[in-house]
Write a structure and sequence with these properties.
By secondary structure, this protein is mostly helical. Helix content is 51%, strand content 8%.
């Protein structure tokens, strides 16, 4: 999962990062964060699949997660 790798690299540099996944990739995200030295790092999880959603459904899904993304990006980051 490149998005997890990118998130870890940003976080190591002290730059808050948030990864958005669908529930089908939960275990993969856990495995990747653990393997990259950041066990327990959070993510924003969407229902799976999203590819079949209509544009207005995607907009509603994104709007419902704005606060969650903002919290993830404004929390304190501990550089490693």
């Amino acid at each position: 999962m490149c998005s997890v790798h990118d998130t870890v690299e940003f976080e190591k540099r002290g730059v808050p990062a948030a990864v958005v996944i669908t529930e089908a990739f939960r275990k993969a995200a856990e495995f990747q964060f653990r393997g990259r030295g950041m066990p327990g790092h959070g993510w924003i999880e969407l229902p799976h699949p999203v590819s079949s959603l209509a544009p207005e459904e995607v907009r509603a899904l994104a709007a419902a997660r704005v606060d969650e993304v903002a919290r993830a990006l404004t929390r304190a980051v501990q550089p490693r």
